[in-house]
Specification:
Number of domains: 1
CATH architecture: Sandwich
Strand content: over 45%
Distance between the termini: 22 Å
CATH topology: Jelly Rolls
Shape: globular
Number of strands: 10
Number of helices: 0
Order of helices and strands: EEEEEEEEEE
CATH superfamily: Jelly Rolls
Structural class: mainly beta
Strand order of the largest sheet: 1-2-3-10-5-8
């Protein structure tokens, strides 16, 4: 099987409404998902874990992430790397725009 490079434009991707508080645009690779996620203030991402590390880059706003038994506030311009297998959850402190890099979910 031959893999080919793919080019995307964020402004051409469909905005998926996940809940009243969350919307996102995603790009799926063979093993990785890149997502722009839009959260309203007060949105909560429930406790979950990934088999590989996760990158959370806050482009706008702020979020409090509970990971490794503690809380860390991630603000605009900051990147949080969540280790593989770590249970984590996030609460939005403001309207928040996040770029995430995660392993692709299969199922």
């Amino acid at each position: 099987m031959t893999l080919r490079a793919s080019l995307y434009r964020w402004d051409e991707l469909v905005l998926e409404k996940v809940t009243e508080m969350v919307a996102r645009k995603t790009i799926l690779g063979a093993e990785t998902m890149l997502a722009q996620a839009y959260f309203k203030k007060g949105a909560l991402v429930p406790v979950h874990a990934h088999p590989a590390e996760v990158f959370l880059y806050v482009l706008q706003g702020a979020m409090r992430v509970h990971v490794d038994g503690g809380d860390v506030t991630v603000r605009e311009g900051e990147v949080l790397v969540v280790p593989a297998g770590s249970s984590h959850q996030a609460a939005m402190l403001d309207d928040t725009f996040v770029l995430t890099v995660t392993p692709r979910f299969r199922g």
